Amino acid sequence: xxxxxxxxxxxxxxxxxxxxxxxxxxxxxxxxxxxxxxxxxxxxxxxxxxxxxxxxxxxxxxxxxxxxxxxxxxxxxxxxxxxxxxxxxxxxxxxxxxxxxxxxxxxxxxxxxxxxxxxxxxxxxxxxxxxxxxxxxxxxxxxxxxxxxxxxxxxxxxxxxxxxxx
Length: 166
Known about the structure:
By secondary structure, the protein is mainly alpha-helical. It has one domain (32-154). The protein has seven helices and no strands. The protein starts with 6 loop residues before the first helix and ends in a 12-residue tail after the last helix.
């Protein structure tokens, strides 16, 4: 089942690096992009609420893999399981802007873990809940601040060419 993408949602996905993916393919799987970020937000929030540097350090390899691989590890939950139940296609590979965001998240998470382990609990809470909030924002609205930073540094997404109806 394809969802209708608003121009705003399409623009947000283009900023994340999906500007080379056909709009029809994006419409089919767009809601499932958010799963990885929602899980990251949940786990980062748990690690922060528990003030657990061990939990946050253990979570950081998942974020790092999201930065270096074209498929986020949590995308596999959808690609290998959920999509079989929904009858939808696989998630497309993630572009450089959103992988940059996972890299930023990795460093941020390790900084948060360090703050907790060094006894800077307030700093850890501020860093951790800010990270959780950013992950929650992309997981609910498709707004990815690190992708916007990437686009500011390396250029905007390519313009989409409108399709002509036959």
